[in-house]
Amino acid sequence: MVLSKTASESDVSIHSTFASRYVRTSLPRFKIPENSIPKEAAYQIINDELMLDGNPRLNLASFVTTWMEPECDKLIMASINKNYVDMDEYPVTTELQNRCVNMIAHLFNAPLGDSETAVGVGTVGSSEAIMLAGLAFKRKWQNKRKAEGKPYDKPNIVTGANVQVCWEKFARYFEVELKEVKLRDGYYVMDPVKAVEMVDENTICVAAILGSTLNGEFEDVKLLNDLLLKKNEETGWDTSIHVDAASGGFIAPFLNPELEWDFRLPLVKSINVSGHKYGLVYAGIGWVIWRSKEDLPEELIFHINYLGADQPTFTLNFSKGSSQVIAQYYQLIRLGHEGYRNIMENCRENAVVLKEGLEKTGRFNIVSKDDGVPLVAFSLKDHSLHDEFEVSDYLRRFGWIVPAYTMPPDAQHVTVLRVVIREDFSRTLAERLVFDIEKVLHELDQLPSKLTTAAKVTAVVDEKKVRNGAVKKTALETQREITDVWMKFVQARKTNGVC
Ligand SMILES: *Cc1c(COP(=O)(O)O)cnc(C)c1O
């Protein structure tokens, strides 16, 4: 997205290597050209430019699927011209989305009667799914408050400080106060005890994460459910839970079937999952499922009929492609429980290979858990000369995209590197990555520290404090200050790769 940026002189036109065979004039960069060009030239120009994009398979920053079977690619291409919203024209596509909703609802143990169908919808991703789920909670809470004759203008939502940015978006766009449970050293997910303490009569729901974006850890939804049940009993409120299972929703049911995090817990009213993460579909699909019809206020559903028969819809956008819905259906029936289980087990095994390889170097602390999302989050044991941002930068030279980022409050002094293990990240690649990380460390060991300037600034601050009679700082405090100062240096180039 470009919000605003001034173009420099050299930015105004684009040139292409081979397109000169077809056209000799260069194309304006930010204006629609006056004349047409041959289709071969357009193809060549764009193809040449895209060559400089990274290789999606080496993008270890992302949870999003980068490989599907050719048979599914074929189905995707065949439906690329179908607008999903024309449900009356494409009743079969609509039927496939409904089958997906029901399959996922059953996977999440929705309490459905024999002839009952699930309540849910396909979305562009978990972000849209979360906006919809959040709106349903907000509206339900408002309706209840109105009926009780109580004020309904200060809704809040309780989450961990580790939430994905889409929850902050929901809060800001839909005017709900975000109450974040702070993290602490060595504990990087929402503490259910603290979350329940923060709940008040204006809380529309508590959002728990199954698979924290930062370190893959599953939050303890069962404990949250039990504590909240108790609080509801004591206060007479009926605060409930949304589970953000963006990545964990297609992992836990296959790898930890006994783990209770879903509709088996009575207070869980809605769950979102990203079809394009461990649902194994290319970017552009997510799902939100409600426990029952009562959990989705009727007034949020729109009925449209100008494309044919009456169609209920609950989405933020109108038109969108059908391909991703069809691709999701393909994966669900192609893989079945067995296929998903095999793939998830393999991902987890490769995560262990990577983790053990990193441990063997003796240079890293592992901050991810073995039983969450298959990812490895790690930080350097020794920051005195070099930091994780440098490791990330140097790895790019080998083609690897491994993001480095700082944890949210109150653990922001901790920086981690994160590698997401997807289906297409093989054991060979895991071993290769460890090898390249070792090379990077070796290279950095030979270099003077980039941190010297930051350390100097800290030293000046220290000296002043000593002069002013401040107490002597612990090693940890000094480390935090160095990190803070250093963060200011890197802020400019830091584009957060956490997604
Ligand atoms: C990825 C992610 C999201 C956002 O999902 P999209 O499908 O990319 O919109 C939300 N929450 C969590 C926990 C995530 O991992």
TrEMBL record:
EC number: 4.1.1.15
Example of a GO MF term: pyridoxal phosphate binding
Keyword Lyase attributed: yes
Domain of life of the native organism: Eukaryota
InterPro entries, sorted: Glutamate_decarboxylase (IPR010107), PyrdxlP-dep_de-COase (IPR002129), PyrdxlP-dep_Trfase (IPR015424), PyrdxlP-dep_Trfase_major (IPR015421)
Xref: Gene3D superfamilies: 3.90.1150.160, 4.10.280.50, Type I PLP-dependent aspartate aminotransferase-like (Major domain)
PTM sites of type N6-(pyridoxal phosphate)lysine: K277
Family per record: Belongs to the group II decarboxylase family.
Protein name (Swiss-Prot/TrEMBL): Glutamate decarboxylase
The organism of origin for this protein: Acorus calamus (Sweet flag)
Gene designation: GAD1
